């Protein structure tokens, strides 16, 4: 767990979305340490706990795969490269922060992170939509509408995120309990 999460930490410049992408690829697709459903459960749980979601999913996956020792090893593995990189980048940034090219580069990085987030969300969301399509039209409609409505509500700050998450979970649970067609 330490080595895997260190590898993820080193490769995941860009923050949470990059971490989620690499962790999903390694644990679900490559190593098959977690099933897709287990990943969705752990990622969903990490979204409702206070704090940094990446830290939560790291601890939860370590716990699920290798117990408490796995959780501690995963957290140490994720944090070590991040702490080192943050110190080095912060020291370098203080020397070059005033340059116009640096600001343009940061905008380019932000655009790349947005693109990576879209790809990751498509990969994670596609099986949900596929399962909903097989279940019923109502489940399919909800699987597409909930992210759109939730995103809008969160973006416009109409209600706190925790209410959006809990409401979406309750709605989808109610729809999923119904018998499939």
Structure description:
- It is built from 7 helices and no strands.
- By secondary structure, it is mostly helical.
- It has a domain at about 1-95.
- It is globular, with a radius of gyration of 19 Å.
**Biggest pleated sheet:** none
Structural Rg: 19 Å
Low-confidence segments, given as residue ranges, are none
Give the termini separation.
Answer: 42 Å
Into which percentage range does the β-strand content fall? Answer: under 5%
Q: What is the mean pLDDT?
A: 88
Fraction of helical residues: over 70%
Task: Give the class from helix and strand content and strand pairing.
Answer: mainly alpha
Secondary-structure element string: HHHHHHH
Q: Helical segment tally?
A: 7
Tally of strands: 0
Shape: globular
Features of the shown structure:
single chain, 181 residues, mainly alpha
């Amino acid at each position: 767990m330490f080595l895997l999460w260190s590898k993820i930490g080193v490769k995941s410049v860009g923050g949470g979305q990059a971490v989620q992408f690499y962790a999903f690829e390694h644990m679900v697709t490559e190593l098959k340490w977690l099933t897709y459903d287990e990943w969705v459960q752990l990622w969903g749980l990490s979204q409702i706990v206070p704090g940094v979601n990446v830290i939560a999913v790291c601890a939860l996956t370590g716990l699920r795969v290798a117990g408490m020792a796995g959780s501690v090893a995963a957290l140490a593995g994720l944090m070590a490269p991040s702490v080192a990189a943050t110190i080095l980048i912060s020291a370098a940034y203080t020397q070059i922060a005033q340059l116009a090219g640096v600001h343009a580069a940061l905008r380019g990085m932000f655009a790349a992170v947005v693109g990576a987030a879209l790809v990751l969300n498509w990969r994670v969301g596609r099986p949900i939509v596929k399962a909903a399509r097989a279940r019923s039209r109502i489940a399919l409609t909800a699987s597409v509408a909930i992210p759109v409505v939730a995103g809008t509500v969160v973006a416009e700050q109409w209600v706190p995120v925790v209410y959006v998450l809990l409401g979406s979970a309750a709605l989808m649970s109610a729809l999923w309990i119904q018998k499939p067609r």
